[in-house]
Amino acid sequence: MSDTTIIQKLKNQFGDRVLEDHTFRDDQTITVKKECLFNVAKYLRDEPSLDMDFLMDLTAVDYMDRKPIRFEVVYHFFSLQHNHRFRVKVPVDEDDCVVDSITPLWKSVNWYEREVWDLYGIKFKGHPNMKRILLYEEFKGHPLRKDYPINKRQPLIGPMN
User: How far is it between the farthest Cα atoms of the chain?
Assistant: First the structure.
């Protein structure tokens, strides 16, 4: 199946909830409203002709000067059976940094979502254990945000013994 067919299937299934799509160097990408992320991910996984059975990566991007949609959460899917990959982006408002968790669909996304929360401050609603994974609990802020002070120092808080 060609990647443009994947885009067309998603447009047919989700209509105006697909905000945009593009292809760059044979990498196919769609941007969807965050309210339909879970359903899009489920469709990518469950539709036999797509069979995106492997979530390769999840990350976020901070476009600090772009308001009000400052962040994007980016999912990289792959189908082992069909040998095709696909990228889904979800715009996230700076004042409402919450996206639905897709942990019920892929258990491995658990740690990716925690990493994005830890470093960017984007929460995943419905996540079973939304807490820091790389930094200690008392750490203030989210260091991959572009407005995080580059020279900020914080005391390392840990066990006394």
Answer: 60
Closest CA to 141 of 58, 62, 38, 46: 62
- The number of C-alpha atoms within 13 Å of 8 and in the hemisphere containing its C-beta is 6
Eight-state DSSP code of residue 157? P
CA–CA distance, 60 with 66 (Å, rounded to integer)? 14
E-strand ranges in the chain read 18-24, 27-32, 54-62, 71-79, 84-92, 98-100, 123-125
Q: Which amino acid is at 81?
A: Q
The answer to whether the bond into 143 is cis (omega within 30° of 0) is: no
Superfamily holding 3-96: NADH:ubiquinone oxidoreductase Nqo5 subunit (3.30.460.80)
Contact assessment for residue 52 and residue 44, using Cβ atoms and an 8 Å cutoff? yes
Structure confidence at residue 151 (pLDDT)? 85
Average pLDDT, the chain: 92
pTM of the model: 0.91
d(CA 49, CA 150): 46
Q: Map out the domains of the chain as residue ranges.
A: 3-96
- Assess whether pLDDT exceeds 60 at residue 98: yes
Q: How far is Cα 1 from Cα 84, in angstroms, rounded to an integer?
A: 9
